[in-house]
Amino acid sequence: MSRRLSCNYHITTINESLQPLLIHGLKGIEKESLRINQEGSISLLPHPSQLGAALTHPNITTDYSEALLELITPALSDGTEMLNYLADLHKYVCANINDELLLAASMPVGDLRDLAIPIAEYGPSNVGRMKHIYRQGLSYRYGRCMQVIAGIHFNYSLAEPFWPQYQHFMKHTGDLQSFTTQSYMRMIRNLQRYGWLILYLFGSSPAVAKSFVKSRHSAHSRALEKFDETSYYKPYATSLRMSEIGYLNPVQSAFHISFNSIDDYIRDLSGATTISHLGYERIGTKVNDQYRQLNSNFLQIENEYYTSVRPKQPTRPNERPLQALGSRGIQYIEIRSVDVDMFEPTGISIETTRFLEALSLFCLFQPNAGHDLKQHNEISNNALTVANRGRDPSLKLLDNGHEVPLRQWALTLCEQMREICEILDNGNVKTPYTRALLQQIEKIHHPELTASARMITAMRMQKMSVTELALQKSYEYTRYFQKSALDGAIKRNFDLQVKTSLAQQKQLDAMNEIPFDEYLSNYFSQGNSTSISHSQVLPKNLSEGKVKAAAQ
Would the keyword ATP-binding turn up in this protein's UniProt record (predicted)? Predict the structure, then answer.
């Protein structure tokens, strides 16, 4: 007997032979956390050597700032094991940052002037210099305040044995890599289409500090309401992190990256990384023999493109992400729209990860032939609307041009996910995936249960600013992890990772390398390869008119 799912009157059958293969998908977390002092300001101290070298450590690194830690779990099939690993990383980090705290929120607080935000350093090697200069370019383009907004990335892939079985079931006669990549791109398109649901359920940034508003210099900040003397908010917001005052910016809105196929994606993103932008030309690439940015293109590198979901293929040394995708296809997808949950010590709960896994699978099995520009704009507007006022009881979204109440659409999607959750429960009498789904359904019926609503309620009840609430939680969780015993074998393994990473950094720094200019030229020349065959052609969505308009 097969299970059947419907979405907008489409029926998709999950064959019984595929069902056991769905429960072994790999999950991973990348979680960003700012190191802050007791007063809430971003730490000006370098990345602690007790945590290893950020450039070479596989699980503890830095993102934009020297103070913005990124904790990375391995890809594991057991979600509980994955979150336990994340908790162990927190225990180890909190034991090695002296009296500093890990900020338990997505939106930064404290002094957010550029001089108060140190850019990450990775040493004098070519790869280390490139990472630093890229971040320097981001500061010129967007300001440092935007770059220290923290988030959580949920990585997901199906077990390898699933794909040949699924290809056979779908009667696809091409090569397996192309089929797998095509299927992941369909999953991504549907995750984009339904991504507003992630913002509603897991958004945890409805308010920001006054210092953020002052430092962000965004015209959209005028739409915020004053909560108290040091806090601004939107009454129904879910994720200001994913709004116009967060990651959105007008330059990137000037071009459209198609996800209709991997070839389209590579073509459009290659164009954005090879076409110069007038405003960035004015910044200058190399001034007085000092690099300000890697180049003056719309995007310095592919990773500068901010999107809610990314196709991913691990890169080899000095390999560009698009080169990896073009050569080896998609290995996993990265959901990037999850806020740090202020009410969870690690920033994310097991119920959240189970829901995201089920939603990803649901999106795999839903038809989606592609998005035209109108659908792309509708998807973007839905996400932006929910980020700004997702808990508004009267809110309606657009579904292929038709207005639908958010609550109605959300409940319909969750009901359609029940079958997937039953498969993932795999006979477990505790039905963990179904329970995680029911928890989210409760949030749809009762918006006050969402993390974004709970934040505003806590601020009101405790008469706290957003900074005070963030500091309270940061202190509570940092002390919790410091008091939690780390298993001896796990600590020894982390200690070895630190020692190894420091040795690798030292070895890398001592290498006799080619001149940096030559290194950079070699890196970007990969765009001329056959795997990225369209990189020198102006993409159809980056017309001369749009390029000029975006440059003004």
Answer: yes
281-311 pLDDT, tens digit each: 999 999 999 999 999 999 999 999 999 999 9
Dihedral over alpha carbons 465, 387, 452, 31 (to 10 degrees): -90
Tell me the pLDDT tens digit for each residue of 124-153. Answer: 999 999 999 999 999 999 999 999 999 999
> Chain-centre distance of CA 181, in angstroms?
20
Q: Which of 355, 472, 350 lies closest to 87 in space, CA to CA?
A: 350
Residue by residue, what is the 3-state secondary structure of 326-390? HHHCCCEEEEEEECCCCCCCCCCCHHHHHHHHHHHHHHHCCCCCCCCHHHHHHHHHHHHHHHHHC
Which residues have a Cβ under 8 Å from the Cβ of 19 and sit 6 or more positions away? 3, 423
Q: Which parts of 219-299 are beta strand (E)? A: 225-228, 231-233, 286-287, 290-291
Q: Which of 99, 100, 103, 140 is nearest to 119 (CA)?
A: 140
Q: Report helix, strand or coil for 183.
A: helix
Specify the DSSP class assigned to residue 294. S
- The span from the CA of 451 to the CA of 337, in Å, is 14
CB atoms within 10 A of CB 382: 25
Write out the DSSP string of 447-512. Answer: GGGSHHHHHHHHHHHTT--HHHHHHHHHHHHHHHHHHSPPPHHHHHHHHHHHHHHHHHHHHHHHS-
Query: In whole angstroms, what is the distance from residue 407 CA to residue 399 CA?
Result: 13
Sign of the CA dihedral 211, 250, 257, 132?
negative
Residue 355 and residue 194 in contact, taking contact as beta carbons nearer than 8 Å: no
Q: What is the DSSP letter of 172?
A: -
